[in-house]
Each structure stands twice: as structure tokens, then as C-alpha cells.
């Protein structure tokens, strides 16, 4: 088994798909956490990255991606063990542990894939991995519903076993990891606050999308359950949406081109998400299902394309995790602001989704126009530069903007 297939197996087994459909129901019905409290405590998932995102990226570049992912997986396992204990603050500790795990994963899994692929066609390889992931995790959704109907603890137990198996595949990946020394604090500050203008629309769009996913992933199963009261319908819907996510990732892999117009691709994603959140805001199970399906179509394309754009702006091939951490941190800060507004201004699931629909469309259109006006309409990315460590953007008129001339050193 080559490293790419080992990575696919690792991604499959570390997936939380076996608990994803039923977890909000378990937290709401069995632990007794209300929907409003579920969203309220989500501030932890934004505050923790504020403090740990950059250090975690630097740590993974310093000690190696595989070691960092092993530590992250152990935090994942601990989070589910805590959730099973059902004491008073078990959900709070679960959010804290799983957020630390997610921060350690953030950027590091992509950096490992980048290392495995040696920087060649990373966009297509990421889409290939996503296609495999969405295709084969569908079975886990059905298993989740069956296990939950027998015993509420069984999906979590199987999730822990699955995470342990993922560690075995992760440790079997055979690469020579290149590590970098920890960056001085003064350079962290310079890099953090020096934002290139064509990053702004990506950050705005990413933060809105992160917040929207956070609201819906944590609560949408509860909305389905209240409308239908059938856990099997939720699992079947998750299987179907996983299938269309797989097709979306496959289509992206086959049609992806470095000559794509960045602004146009972003506009398609923005329009689709705006319509999706509008559908979800309607208190009807059919519209709720359609909106959720549309989000699942956009999700794999968004992750592959946006992360590929972010990685094209990194300076050194062994600084990938740190670079992604910068952008994830900034997106999380903006998303935390939206969460604060949610807690102060909105009272129900439908309200926040209709506002999300409007905001994504307005901010998205402004961002796309800004992207075109500033400089990005004519860009195409040269990903072959990853292997030569030059990482540059090439305009159609062949004027070269070297990345090292933009970055503060």
C-alpha cells in the first residue's frame, strides 16, 4: 500500500462520520444540553484556536506532521470518552478537547498530504482523497443509526475504536519529514498582520462559511429530528448527502484546472451557499433537506479549492502547516465575531440562516468584485512551482510576481 492509500485509510478511520448524524441528538436528548447552549458553548471552538492555532502550526512544522496528528487523534479519543461519562460539564470538556484536536489537525493533515504528494498537483490529489472519503464514509452513517437504536453509547464506542485504527495507518506512512526550527516571536507578529490584499476575500468568505457550518453541523440533526422524529431518516439523508459530496469531489478532481477564473469559482460557491442557507431557514423538512444537500455539494469543492489557494501563498515547502494556521486563525477570529452576534441578536435556527444567506451573498459579491478590481481576475496559479520552492503567481501577461517579493522576511 503506497502512502496516498495509507493517507486515505487514515482519513477514513479518523472520520467522525459514525457519530455525526446522531451526536447532536445524543447531546440534546441524553445529556440534556439545549440547542441554545450548544451554540453558546461553540465560542470555545473559536477562542481556543485564537491561542493555539499558530503555535500548533509551528509545532507540526518543528516536530513533524505525523507526530502532531498522533497527538491530535489522542485528544479526539479523550473527547469522546469524556462525552460518554455524562457528568454536568461533559459537553464543555468535550468541546474543549475536540477543539484542541481540531486545531492540531488544522493545516497539518493538508501539510502531510502535500509532503506525500511532493507538491505535485496537490489540488487534484486533495479532491481524490475527498472523493474516497465521502464515498466510503456513507456506510458509517447507516451504522450510526442502527447502533444508536440499540444503545446510545455504541456509536461513540465504535468511534473510539475507529480512531485507534486510524493511528495505525498514520504511523505506517513512510516519509522523511523535513522540520523547520521554531520561528522567532517578532516574525510571527509581522507575518500575522501582513495580509496581502487578495487574501481578504478568501478570509471573509472562509469565516462566514466556517460559522455557517458550525451552526448547522451542531444543530441540523436536531431540526430534522423535531420535524420528522425519525433517526433513520437523518442517517439516510446523511448517506445521500455524503454520496453527492463524493460526486462533487470527483467532478472537481476531473474538471479542475489551474486556469480557472478564481473570482468566477468563488461566485458560484457564494451563490450556491446563499441559496442553501435560504432553504434551510424555511421550517419545512423538504426545504431543510434541499438546503443541506446544496451545502454538501459545495463543501468538498470549497475545502479543496480554498486550501489550495492558501497553500500557493506559502514561502517554504516545510512551512505549509504554519501558513495554513495563520489563515485559519484569522478566519476563526472573524467567525467568533459572528458567533457573538448570534448569541446577542438571534433567537432561533431559522433566523440565523436567513441572515447568513443575505450576508454571504452581499459580502461574497463585494469580495468577488474586490478580487477582480485589485488583481485576481487575471491570475492563474502555477502549482509546479511548489517543487522548485519558488511558489509564484503568474499573470496572463506573463508578468511574474515572486512570492518572496511580497512576503516579509
UniProtKB/TrEMBL annotation:
Alphabetical UniProt keywords: Membrane, Transmembrane, Transmembrane helix
Database matches in InterPro entries: MFS_DHA3_Transporter, MFS_trans_sf
Keyword Cytoplasm included in the entry's annotation: no
UniProt KW Transmembrane keyword: yes
Transmembrane segments: 7-27, 33-52, 64-85, 91-112, 133-150, 156-173, 193-211, 231-249, 261-279, 285-302, 323-342, 354-373
Domain of life from the UniProt record: Bacteria
Protein name: MFS transporter
Amino acid at each position: 500500500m503506497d502512502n496516498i492509500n495509507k493517507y486515505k485509510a487514515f482519513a477514513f478511520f479518523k472520520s467522525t462520520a459514525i457519530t455525526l448524524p446522531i451526536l447532536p441528538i445524543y447531546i440534546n436528548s441524553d445529556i440534556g444540553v439545549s440547542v441554545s447552549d450548544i451554540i453558546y458553548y461553540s465560542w470555545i471552538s473559536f477562542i481556543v484556536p485564537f491561542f493555539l492555532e499558530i503555535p500548533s502550526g509551528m509545532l507540526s512544522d518543528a516536530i513533524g506532521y505525523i507526530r502532531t496528528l498522533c497527538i491530535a487523534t489522542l485528544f479526539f479519543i479523550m473527547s469522546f470518552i469524556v462525552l460518554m461519562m455524562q457528568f454536568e460539564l461533559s459537553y464543555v470538556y468535550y468541546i474543549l478537547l475536540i477543539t484542541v484536536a481540531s486545531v492540531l489537525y488544522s493545516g497539518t493533515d493538508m501539510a502531510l498530504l502535500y509532503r506525500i504528494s511532493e507538491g505535485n498537483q496537490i489540488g487534484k490529489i486533495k479532491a481524490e482523497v475527498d472523493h474516497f472519503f465521502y464515498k466510503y464514509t456513507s456506510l458509517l452513517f447507516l451504522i450510526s443509526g442502527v447502533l444508536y437504536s440499540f444503545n446510545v453509547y455504541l456509536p461513540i464506542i465504535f468511534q473510539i475504536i475507529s480512531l485507534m485504527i486510524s493511528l495505525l495507518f498514520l504511523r505506517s506512512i513512510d516519509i522523511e519529514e523535513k522540520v523547520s526550527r521554531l520561528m522567532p516571536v517578532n516574525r510571527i507578529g509581522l507575518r500575522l498582520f501582513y495580509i496581502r490584499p487578495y487574501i481578504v476575500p478568501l478570509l471573509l468568505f472562509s469565516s462566514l462559511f466556517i460559522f455557517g457550518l458550525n451552526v448547522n453541523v451542531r444543530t441540523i440533526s436536531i431540526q430534522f429530528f423535531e420535524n420528522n422524529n425519525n433517526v433513520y431518516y437523518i442517517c439516510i439523508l446523511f448517506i445521500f448527502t455524503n454520496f453527492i459530496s463524493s460526486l462533487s469531489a470527483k467532478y472537481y478532481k476531473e474538471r479542475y484546472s489551474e486556469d480557472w477564473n478564481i473570482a468566477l469559482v468563488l461566485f458560484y460557491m457564494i451563490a450556491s451557499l446563499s441559496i442553501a442557507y435560504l432553504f434551510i431557514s424555511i421550517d419545512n423538512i423538504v426545504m431543510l433537506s434541499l438546503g443541506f444537500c446544496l451545502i454538501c455539494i459545495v463543501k468538498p469543492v470549497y475545502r479543496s479549492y480554498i486550501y489550495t489557494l492558501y497553500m500557493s501563498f506559502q514561502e517554504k515547502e516545510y512551512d505549509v502547516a504554519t501558513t495554513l494556521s495563520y489563515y485559519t486563525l484569522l478566519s476563526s477570529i472573524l467567525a467568533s465575531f459572528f458567533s457573538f452576534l448570534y448569541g446577542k441578536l438571534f433567537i432561533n435556527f431559522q433566523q440565523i440562516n436567513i441572515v447568513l444567506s443575505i450576508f454571504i451573498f452581499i459580502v461574497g459579491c463585494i469580495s468577488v468584485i474586490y478580487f477582480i478590481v485589485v488583481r485576481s481576475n487575471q491570475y492563474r496559479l502555477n502549482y509546479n512551482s511548489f517543487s522548485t520552492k519558488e511558489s509564484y503567481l503568474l499573470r496572463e501577461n506573463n508578468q511574474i510576481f515572486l512570492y518572496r517579493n511580497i512576503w516579509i522576511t
